[in-house]
Amino acid sequence: MKALRWHGARDLRLDEVPDPPQPGPHEAVVEVSWCGVCGTDLHEFLEGPHMIRTGPHPLTGAEPPLALGHEFSGTVLALGSEVPGIEVGDRVTADPVWRCGVCYWCLRGEYHICPKSGSVGLASAGAFAERVTVPLAGLVRLPDNVTDEMAALAEPLAVGLHAVTRAGVRPGDNVLVVGGGPIGFAVVLAARLAGAAGLYVSEPLKERRERLLEIGVTEAFDPGGTDVRREVFLRTGRIGPDVVIDATGVAALAGQAVATVRRGGRVVLAGVGHGNIEVDMGQLVFYERAVLGTLGYNFDIPRVIDLMSTGRLDASPLLTGRFPLAQGIGVFGDLTADRARHLKVLLTPKGL
Ligand SMILES: [Zn+2]
Ligand SMILES: [Zn+2]
Fold first, then answer.
1. Which CATH class, in words, describes the domain spanning 159-293?
2. Phi-psi region of 263 (alpha: psi -120 to 50; beta: other; left: phi over 0)
3. For the chain, which ranges sit under pLDDT 70?
4. Shortest-distance ligand to the CA of residue 296
């Protein structure tokens, strides 16, 4: 089968590889319909490895070269064990996180922070391929009214849902989202579902701000020309937002988020980042502010599918492009050269 494999930074290849083997007891094999290109994939492409390990992964044993792709939908080809409610031939998406299943965190259901955890498409061969091996425990059967294309968007939306859940957004809250890329967009959609009254976004790219206004955010600020902290302060009765969610992973912006959130408010860091955050202790202690990290999702993908199926969540504005897998290398080049044009792009091995 064909697979778009990461061989190293700036080295993606459309390789001919063997089909996945018969699934082990905790695995399933899925025939891929669509798979989304994630910011993580672009980082691995540009200057990886970051999440990809150069040696064998401690849990899966996989090592590069391997196919990227962890935001997918498709049809079940083979099940390693029986799963209630899922049969071969069913349309599915999957939570792509491999987990050990026996550690302290896995036993508490916090599989997403299992020390050995890793994702399909980073810790094992991914879904930029015709077929992919996925964790059996992650399979989610798709209702008839959720298309394969929309289901491939469930994973990034689950990141937003998890961040908003971590933030404890309540009906009537004022929320500021820093960064209007795919994850910021997903956070906005989830915050609206949680009942946010004022929904503000800070995003430097004009195209993204326009798109955010189209889906109904209260205001989208250009941090280049605006004092976002002051503007949100003034629009919230000189109180400040109840919640600030960072979707950039930029340490300097995380520090600003602490200074921006209201007294007693919560900052949630959803962007994948490193480095020191400069925060005055007094900004936290005297004003009872909380800062939380959030990683990926924890049983959030089935909730996203339910929200889509019941008509509560329209993910379509997130989707800006669909291409054949065979054009994948060019698509990665375009996405890294011009961030303004697209939010979420899907690839299909099946042809358009
Ligand atoms: Zn992703
Ligand atoms: Zn574990």
1. alpha beta
2. beta
3. none
4. 1
